[in-house]
Amino acid sequence: VCFSGTVIGVVIYTGKETRSVMNTSNPKNKVGLLDLELNQLTKALFLALVALSVVMVTLQGFVGPWYRNLFRFLLLFSYIIPISLRVNLDMGKAAYGWMIMKDDNIPGTVVRTSTIPEELGRLVYLLTDKTGTLTQNEMIFKRLHLGTVSYGTDTMDEIQSHIINSYSQVHSQNSGSSTSSTPSRKPQSSAPKVRKSVSSRIHEAVKAIALCHNVTPVYESRAGVSAETEYAEVDQDFSDENRTYQASSPDEVALVQWTESVGLTLVNRDLTSMQLKTPGGHILTYYILQIFPFTSESKRMGIIVRDESSGEITFYMKGADVAMSTIVQYNDWLEEECGNMAREGLRTLVVAKKSLTEEQYQDFESRYNQAKLSIHDRNLKVAAVVESLEREMELLCLTGVEDQLQADVRPTLEMLRNAGIKIWMLTGDKLETATCIAKSSHLVSRTQDIHIFRPVTTRGEAHLELNAFRRKHDCALVISGDSLEVCLKYYEHEFVELACQCPAVVCCRCSPTQKAHIVKLLQHHTGKRTCAIGDGGNDVSMIQAADCGIGIEGKEGKQASLAADFSITQFKHIGRLLMVHGRNSYKRSAALGQFVMHRGLIISTMQAVFSSVFYFASVPLYQGFLMVGYATIYTMFPVFSLVLDQDVKPEMALLYPELYKDLTKGRSLSFKTFLIWVLISIYQGGILMYGALLLFESEFVHVVAISFTALILTELLMVALTIRTWHWLMVVAEFLSLGCYVASLAFLNEYFG
Fold it and tell me: Where in the numbering of this chain does the P-type ATPase C-terminal domain appear (predicted)?
């Protein structure tokens, strides 16, 4: 860029102005559904506390300063409010996180939050990204189509032989021209004309793929070799087996690696040139005159290069079929073959070229530089100049690259579906590719019908398409981001209602903001718990919006992993994370929460019975250390040991994922189970207190010691009866608490007296 004056400063897009930040949203504080349910129950207990105190004062007859007695009763029955519940639950959550990270079956899993492990056991909707999440994000070149002939993985050796023959002819021609003063001509070949045509087309296609990219070869430096020596022996380094390629897109690396496999190798690149090595070991140098990088708007990238040996200037371009179809010359096969490759799950790229004369390039360069110096509408003017070149380009080939599925994706998705979890795939890929991956990964069952939502742009079209979709039953839905936007604009409630009835939904061409919006729609319209899983920066908004966010450490960095609540290394680990750890966390916290409430209710019931017997006097039954020790050293260890309990073994939970369906109904902790525990507490507290008063009436002075001992033994027995699977630490906790109580009897005489 040329400046006419002094540069004072440079304004660049940073901070909130960068695309990645603008595509993300502010994270919210996530609260688990179990915590919300326990808050409701705690409110009910508070109302019960106030009601009980009022009843006691009423039965007292409002004698004297009744309001003072009311507050005394509030203090006496304050154990109804489970103050220790929050502490026990938080310690339990920390224990669940530790167990998850120590599980050898899901190595590398990291728990980044200590507030919502129970959410893993309550999920109904799983929203997943495709590339890098269901797939490995490792691209493998699978198909090259030239219009009349197509080459697959089993015929790549034919391409290699064509390239070897082509470049051997070129070099023999060059060596002949160097010893003769006559101008070189194309050597005659005895091969048929069609064969020669195919060979030249393969030659042009492979050369275009080897030149049109942003890939840089990198060589590992060898110990004991200085930089000067390396530079001097650059030819030797070109054959280094430790060569690796670096690029922003794995697709481009796959293409360059393929050209290397067929004989044309990218060996060096800098800002102004790149060098290719032919099968015969000759180095071809091309000067980079201009480069037009890929953008999400243009969906294509281009490069203008000059051949050092011949001086020919060529404009190469590659991009998505939707962008390239209007740029290349008329053909009758591109659209059909793109659809065929997409149905096979391949990512397609169209490659084209245009030869430029020196005059054409000089004219373009002057207009291009002039446009770059414009003060107003610079981007539009630059785009217009580039588009002047993008006309009637020669279509060279169509490439197909496969992104392989991750290990055990199919059985994992099958398990999640059997567990009653509805899976939505949100991806930026084209519709055909997304549909193919959904089928191959068994996200959509092979026996299920698929309804592909037609592209809609108006309210009327959306209405007709929704009516057509409404008439179908038990079919998966595939919809594009643009059509989704139109449907949500006019028929939000109807669309979400219909989509939620589908066993699987695939949304293609989705932007990061749309992904987060879909998560919020499901939360708002269904009230069910959602989980989002992704591996890239474009999934961060979705992960943060979901009730439970899971990030995968992939090739796109750790942005999603760091923003998530849970981080895993492979998609298949989500099965054990939900079926085993999600189940255990929810079941254990539900049991722990209700047991802590029971512990407070039973002692408050005994206090109420004691006060009722003595004419509703606001006198404490247990004082001092007894009240402190009851919730700590006497009962804390056995009650907290419930975090080690499990109702089914991990193997059974994975073998029968249908067991997970019961968790989403919330039956382990509800007002019904809460009332059952309240009745149990009232019954036990009443029996303990009345039993102590009636059976030991002659030894009334020892009623405190008798009732308190019975209370401690009852709590320990209740924990033992509640446990489903014994752990050695549970046994230790039971005997440790009992031992502490027996040992403390030595100095409890003053309290029992």
Answer: 562-751
